[in-house]
Design brief:
- The complex is a heterodimer of chains A (266) and B (314).
- Chain A contains eleven helices and seven strands.
- Chain A is an alpha/beta fold.
- Chain A has one domain: Alpha/Beta hydrolase fold, catalytic domain (Rossmann fold, 3-Layer(aba) Sandwich).
- Chain A has a seven-stranded mixed sheet with strand order 1-3-2-4-5-6-7, sandwiched between helices.
- With 314 residues, chain B is α+β, with helices and mostly antiparallel strands.
- In chain B, the strands form two sheets. A five-stranded antiparallel sheet of chain B has the order 2-1-5-4-3.
- The chains are: A alpha/beta (266), B alpha+beta (314).
- Chains A and B meet through helix 4, helix 5 and helix 6 of A and helix 4 and strand 3 of B.
């Protein structure tokens, strides 16, 4: 069972230390987005990376429309990865939608996480009465259509072979099969589960110290949304980054992102 | 910017890693209908394209150092124009090319619409199919209920209303089955016993039909207590009864019939005491319902003729 999960989610463990950091990627990418962050922690922490089912080098044949139709299915992936490695007292760092996925997992299993760090998270992307998520339903539908038209483009993100295998040439037939199975249909499902989600009511139940990291200009999760998170998560801190802009500070400003994370985990 | 690049048949711009645009060729400015170069990529894109860009462009550049054929929509005069974007990272800057894809976009939109229609039809078909399955299940349930009801009705129809014994119709069926069975298996031959209440017309004439009915009922109960399954008892006429004795040895069948007659003679009758005349015959190969019945009836007639309250074997 454990080996099955390790393989299914392409779990990678590196570094050494008493405490464990789990980094969770966001929509449209995979664990490789953490490559400039991980080295800063590998000396003092055990670092766990994984791909959600349907992303990166996961086994997409494990995908089921029912399980992954909501973020709870992805939270299940996260919990199963933690259980497979028998992790405890985890520091969780989630980018974008993984902020909410981590929250759902923390609510489901109080005590498993020691700290929750979310970068560019949003509990609800759609504008609702009295809440400014940033997007109208038509805009989200247009986005989903755009994903469909960009079919080949995603296939490339989902299957990051082109670049990565220059370093890792172990392209087995099985691996190739996995990549082919990581189809745009699953990616669209992830996008739909993400952008149609509304977890505002769950925020008050997050039972763990939470750090909300926000950049100055984030087109996907605006500052107003970060402030909403801070107001509604009981034990939370909002940290606005000094220089980083955009939705992907871990890619664009890895040093500053590392500093932020280190500051809260001490 | 050199003149050829400036007038190239595609939009060209240079962007920093904070997505600020620092230069743009004339073709792109013309396409965007602007004289000033917009300062940020967000100013160029529609809202959905901005989300798409933010979600996919940075990770792609970080991992692959390039982006190919990314479909986006740019805003021109408040309208959305479809474009394809290529980008390379070089010397810390992002060099990008934009090509408008108006004709191709229309074609792709048609494809998308067709696909969506197909998906919708598929969904509707699935829904209808599920409904049909539901209806089918309902029909099956109703059918099962009908079957059960039928079997109840059949039981009701098999009974003689007055005595609750098998009626003539069922007796005929049972007799036919017994013949068929005996033809195939020697050890399953049987005897047919006919019996008739003695002087029953007199009972009816003297005490009335209501009392006659009570006598018939009492006789039926008494016979049921004495003749048990697999033997079966039927009322086949006014005061005439038939018993199928599933007894392969004729002598034993005769013994049983005689026991029954004696039992009726010595029984305590609540309404009024009666006796019966009996005729019995055993199955022989080649017998039909008719031939068996005629033989048994002849025997019964002989019993009547010879003084009643007796058994004759034929």
């Amino acid at each position: 069972m454990n080996q099955h999960i390790i393989k299914r989610n392409h779990v990678q463990v590196s570094g050494s230390g008493e405490r464990t950091i789990v980094f969770a990627h966001g929509l449209g990418c995979d664990q490789t987005v953490w490559k400039n962050i991980v080295p800063a922690f590998a000396a003092n922490y055990r670092v766990v990376l994984f791909d959600y089912v349907g992303a990166g080098r996961s086994d997409a044949s494990a995908s089921s429309a029912e399980r992954y139709s909501s973020l709870h299915g992805y939270a299940q992936d996260l919990l199963e990865v933690c259980d497979a490695l028998q992790l405890e007292n985890i520091i969780f760092v989630g980018h974008s939608v993984s902020g909410m996925i981590g929250s759902l997992a923390a609510i489901q299993r109080p005590g498993l996480f020691d700290k929750l760090i979310m970068i560019g998270a949003s509990p609800c992307y759609l504008n609702e009465p009295g809440y400014n998520g940033g997007f109208e339903l038509e805009e989200i539908s247009e986005l989903l259509d755009m994903m469909e038209i960009n079919y080949n483009e995603w296939a490339k993100y989902l299957a990051p072979i082109a670049m990565l295998n220059e370093e890792k040439p172990e392209l087995t037939a099985e691996f190739e099969m996995m990549l082919n199975a990581n189809s745009p249909v699953i990616a669209r499902q992830f996008a739909e589960a993400t952008f149609m989600s509304d977890h505002r009511h769950d925020l008050q139940n997050i039972p763990v110290r939470t750090l909300i990291i926000q950049t100055k200009e984030d087109a996907i999760a605006p500052l107003e949304v970060a402030q909403y998170l801070h107001r509604h998560i009981p034990n939370s801190e909002l940290s606005i980054m000094e220089t980083a802009k955009g939705h992907n500070p871990h890619i664009s400003h890895p040093e500053e992102t590392v500093q932020e994370i280190k500051r809260i985990i001490g | 910017m050199d003149e050829q690049l400036n007038a190239a048949p595609c939009g060209y711009f240079i962007m920093q890693h904070d997505w600020k645009i620092i230069d743009m060729n004339q073709t792109l400015k013309d396409m965007m209908k602007t004289e000033q170069s917009p300062s940020h990529i967000h100013d160029v894109l529609t809202v959905p394209s901005r989300i798409y860009f933010q979600t996919y462009f940075p990770p792609a550049i970080a991992v692959h150092k390039k982006v190919r054929e990314m479909y986006l929509n740019v805003k021109v005069d408040g309208r959305s124009v479809p474009v394809l974007l290529n980008a390379n990272e070089r010397n810390g800057l992002l060099e990008c090319v934009i090509v408008q894809i108006k004709a191709r976009d229309e074609y792709e939109n048609q494809l998308m619409t067709a696909k969506k229609n197909a998906e919708r039809i598929q969904k509707e078909t699935d829904v209808t199919y599920t409904k049909l399955l539901g209806i089918l299940r309902e029909v099956e349930e109703k059918q099962q209920q009908l079957l059960e009801l039928n079997s109840v009705l059949e039981k009701l129809a098999a009974r003689d209303e007055l005595t609750g014994l098998h009626n003539r119709r069922i007796f005929q069926i049972e007799l036919a089955a017994a013949i068929e069975n005996a033809e195939e298996n020697d050890d399953q031959s049987f005897s047919l016993l006919l019996l008739d209440i003695d002087h029953f017309k007199h009972v009816n004439d003297t005490y009335g039909h209501a009392t006659g009915d009570l006598v018939l009922k009492e006789l039926a109960r008494k016979m049921e207590s004495a003749v048990l399954p697999p033997h079966t008892i039927a009322r086949i006429g006014g005061e005439e009864f038939a018993i199928l004795l599933q007894e392969p040895i004729p002598e034993k069948a005769i013994e049983k019939a005689e026991d029954l007659r004696k039992f009726l003679v010595s029984a305590k009758w609540e309404i009024l005491p009666i006796t019966v005349s009996m005729g019995i015959t055993h199955f022989q190969q080649g017998d039909t319902r008719n031939s068996l019945y005629i033989r048994a009836d002849d025997a019964l007639y002989a019993s009547k003729r010879n003084g009643r309250n007796q058994l004759t074997c034929n």
